[in-house]
Request: fold
Amino acid sequence: MVAMINPFDAGGYSLAEMTQAINILPNVYTRLGQMGLFRFDGITQRSVVIEQAEGVLNLLPTVPLGGPATVANRDTRSMRSFTVPWIPHDDVITPQDIQGVRGFGVADAADPLATVMERKLTRMRVKHAQTREYMEVNALRGIVRDGAGTTLYNYFTEFGLAQQETDFLLGTAGTQVQGKVRDVLRKIETELKGETMTGVLALVSPEFFDRLIGHAKVEEAYKYYSSTGAQPLREDTRRRFPFAGIVFEEYNATVTLSTGATETLIPSGEGIAFPLGTLDTFVTYGAPANLIETVNTVGLPIYARQIARPDGSAIEVKTEASILPVNKRPRLAVRIFSSN
Reply:
């Protein structure tokens, strides 16, 4: 491998240095990432064994060498092994990326390698962040999907669980919407199973949000929401509308899959309600990189490295992530919709 100059320091790029560089770049917050809903937990293996007991999914713990082993549930279907998805993403820096290209805001200087490398890493980090957001939103519903939209695992199917849902019937003027909200809250409270929460948030599609605030039993509450300082008649309050114990938030996000197709994170006319402030319900497990030097090390959110082509024609910029988002209590996330 040809030695290259590290734009970030005086040494050469190593896996550790470049991984640190991509992880200290300005974070691209997505909605779930901004909330910090899914706690990141690095693991040392490429697969995890998950056991389901009374509707709760848990990883099997490690024990001291020679110590007592954990005892499996007699139901063999209660335990499954899942491979952590591997998400590599590469780019390349060529002479054309640097030669004759001015630096941003600089009229008489060429674009330095450091600036080009930082732009490449930032764009790659954005794509990894979008992929993680997509996977975590789906994990709320108990499903693991990759960047192509392919379903890898369905925890409800794997463990014989049924997703909870509530039909708000927003097409019926006489529907007691507060009663529907209480139904969602009670379902979540019942499924906490020892967990704690500080509140409930519902991420809903634009169609669901419009029908909710336009319903006869909700319209007045939305109109006079100004008591908290918000002014729905003059301001955009789609990001926070508390009603009967649930904060409703319009989440109008669309991603472009690796196939080129687009997908809305929250299906039209639906929403997902889930608890906030939990201690150990939403976790994203991260496996180590697929490299010799990371074997048996604790996984990081993103890895990055560079490899110079032997002929000196380009620098390969390689990134990868191995993440598996898990909702340990899948029935806590309640699907909400309106059938009419």
Summary: The two ends are 63 Å apart (CA to CA). The domain at 15-155+283-326 is CATH 3.15.30 (putative capsid protein of prophage fold).
